[in-house]
Amino acid sequence: MEIVITAVGPDNIGLADPIIHYVTGQGANIAEIQMYDHDEAAVFAMLLRIHLQVDSIDPLRGTVEQLGRAKGLSVRVWSPEPTGRTARLAICTTYRPEPALSLLRAIRDRQVPAEAVVMLGNRDRCRGLAEQFNVPWHSVGNPLGIPDEEEIVRVLDEYRVDYVILARYMRVLPATTCWKFAGGRIINLHHGLLPSFPGIRPYHEAYASRMLTYGATCHFIVPELDAGNQIIYQSTFTVPPGMKLEDITRLGQEDNEPHCLVEGVRRVVQREVLLHFHRVVATPPS
Amino acid sequence: MEIVITAVGPDNIGLADPIIHYVTGQGANIAEIQMYDHDEAAVFAMLLRIHLQVDSIDPLRGTVEQLGRAKGLSVRVWSPEPTGRTARLAICTTYRPEPALSLLRAIRDRQVPAEAVVMLGNRDRCRGLAEQFNVPWHSVGNPLGIPDEEEIVRVLDEYRVDYVILARYMRVLPATTCWKFAGGRIINLHHGLLPSFPGIRPYHEAYASRMLTYGATCHFIVPELDAGNQIIYQSTFTVPPGMKLEDITRLGQEDNEPHCLVEGVRRVVQREVLLHFHRVVATPPS
Amino acid sequence: MEIVITAVGPDNIGLADPIIHYVTGQGANIAEIQMYDHDEAAVFAMLLRIHLQVDSIDPLRGTVEQLGRAKGLSVRVWSPEPTGRTARLAICTTYRPEPALSLLRAIRDRQVPAEAVVMLGNRDRCRGLAEQFNVPWHSVGNPLGIPDEEEIVRVLDEYRVDYVILARYMRVLPATTCWKFAGGRIINLHHGLLPSFPGIRPYHEAYASRMLTYGATCHFIVPELDAGNQIIYQSTFTVPPGMKLEDITRLGQEDNEPHCLVEGVRRVVQREVLLHFHRVVATPPS
Amino acid sequence: MEIVITAVGPDNIGLADPIIHYVTGQGANIAEIQMYDHDEAAVFAMLLRIHLQVDSIDPLRGTVEQLGRAKGLSVRVWSPEPTGRTARLAICTTYRPEPALSLLRAIRDRQVPAEAVVMLGNRDRCRGLAEQFNVPWHSVGNPLGIPDEEEIVRVLDEYRVDYVILARYMRVLPATTCWKFAGGRIINLHHGLLPSFPGIRPYHEAYASRMLTYGATCHFIVPELDAGNQIIYQSTFTVPPGMKLEDITRLGQEDNEPHCLVEGVRRVVQREVLLHFHRVVATPPS
After folding, report:
1. Angstroms from C172 CA to nearest CA on chain D
2. Who has the most CB within 10 Å: A121, A161, C18, D163?
């Protein structure tokens, strides 16, 4: 069974040793290790992907969590492998409802075999959507929209979320949160074509470049500042010269972005694509 | 009648004066002037777009060409306005035949109301195509493929070409040639999405960025080194993760690029778009 | 005598004709014309650089201004040529006083042969500096620091300013103001190396790139959105690995930036460099 | 003692396990692990930085090399810690002799406490330099200048090189070679300012941008395609407008580049800077 272990700690000393010791002692084969030490930012983290001959990850999880507690590490043990259950999604939102709505419909109509187990918002704009689809809602922002990052992690843990879907969630997740759910569990919808238009106003920037093609990108978030290009799906549309920016933006927001997110999430939960050493690869035929 | 006059001269002194004097004396309204003086590169040029109440540009052309001869200027007088005739195209090629073939078919099938009056190649690969469609062919390259730039201009003048179509012509036109046919008469097919992938290997670069969207761009060439983004049409296609570069490239070359060129040329010859002060604009309703 | 005429008008029709007619009728040789028509932004402008055999530009100015009034154009006539007087500078400021202070000292100590005839600020931070050096001060910002763009132009005209010095003035001049003083009369200090770090936080961006070289750039503002690289002077400093961003920024602000501005302004007012068709060139030996 | 172990293997399976098992069993603390699996490029590698209480790395090296042989891994064990000996440098060259010459002089004059134990060239241009300074020379290029990558590694191993200095060596080291000497052992001189001008013609590119500042960058090579910005030292010079490209290039090549390389190498061999998780940091005071 493929198992992903993440650990985030207060410093670099002793971050890796106890967990690696333990799992290799259990006969695990190490498939991937990523370590991260950003002294200035005080972020120390590790991702460990292993293969272990077990039927359940629960015993391993128990022991590794115990190790974590003893060493002051925040530890998570997760397996991407299908186990008869559908993937559990958290959908994070800010203002725009269209991508979340499309995803909720696609789940309801069984086009995306997953379950929306919780919705979060740093703004309350999409709360009605959660009620409409009977999904538990958590407001995680203060009146200025600044999110409580610890509360977000707590909610994701509480609902035993497999994948975190950023459906036009307009905040940057802190590096520690990214590491806690590393290994291809955070999926973002960016409303521009990556890597060309990475900023917060990609429609404006493409328009200023006088492009006639606009697009959206569904990609994994990987927890390094400079990483990128973990693209799961991109969709585009073309416009005639002279179309106004607001019309272009509306086309993108109402049609292209929702489509892009739904197809991207579908590829992940149906395990058509994998994140492998920072690269998205097609799942090899077994 | 809208008239475009271009002049290219040996130096900056006296480049503008005689022509501007003459046409304003004839009662012309000046709509646009672009001057260019690149001392280091010894390129001195002017574009003059005027409106003049005449039924024919022939008398004006005669006088301006006389002025040009007297001053050592290379002068061209052209009108984009429909005059009952179809647009006369020169199709420039190097190796890849697909875009030129698609354009020739679209002309034959009257999807693009134009006439291919001449084909040029710095390589001979597309000569058979010209023969197949009964279009006069001119080889303009030496055995190394280096084109004879003066011969190209001579051919374009001889065939009284309205638009120069660079159908995967893999050479950069010199600035003087661009100026001689300035004003929206040179149309290029670039095999990548502009402005993101401007180089000579856009498929490779997009692939190295791990993009899942590939595209082509049909755009006007404007005669400054740094200009860009005069986009007439862009078309894209999306691929699944893991598709090999050679398969992506083949999809682009055989299907997406030809479509992009045909639609771009159609927009220009049907006067749906105009080049106006370095920007492509939709033709205003008259 | 070299004369620069700028005209900004309400639309494109008739912008160029009357002035060009008049000056060519006076026997002027046209050295450079730049026209600009940005329909979407409603900016229509022209720069005309001519040579005319006159001892004074005053008669020409009178007539051209009359033409402007008749046609609704905002017209300016200026000559860069030395006429026995020192260059008249306007120094525009926001918060940081160091570059303006250094320039005022260099003028006082006659290292820069110019006169600071007026200082402006969209914030009042540098008002004391103006008082200290007995330079008239104009506050041009509202309480939010938003400048009154028409008042700025009015002040620049009132003081018959030759050059506008943006000494860490943190606002973007509107295109119309840039056109009114086109031809190499607006000099900006950018606190980063251009073209690599064009944004508003160049120290942060270079630091994020983990560079060990930081710099400042003194350049002409040219009135097109995409223009750039009209660099008059650049100065740099290097730092050891591990130096903190605030220490780097302080080094740059207190030492490198002021030096960069003073040397840049000196080059312009001593006519060592010229703006020629959007390029900065060394003044040819006469 | 800090010890760096690198392993490069034929595939990902079993790359990490035996070595990690062994060293953690010996009581090593793991300070850093980097793993790399580029399936398409068939590059599989690991960097392991550990702390171990030993007086000599020789016993560890012996065992780990034995493990490597058994598993088909190419293994290297190295310690950056001072042990009374001077650092052993390999200087790699192509055409330009100036940087290598400056470094050899600085070593001779004891400004850089190191020993040039071998020089390599994919071209023979710098062979005379090696003879002049009595450094063994190895030609590693074929008549076209294409280097024998295996021979390079063999020579570096044979001479027990601590640091590989790329002194205007104009070839890209393959990823496998970079991994074999990972951990801050490969130092490159780039003849432009990074990250702005990364290409092979940085003088041309900066000149085309009309910059007045030119620079060189001494940096660690890290073995990922997208990594960068591991800058050890940068030095710059400024030029007046109008200076010709060939004069700028000569200034850079003859003066600025050699200075940049010498100071960069000095910082490394005197352990003023370290490579720590892909970032260059100042050595913390012990």
Report:
1. 22
2. A121
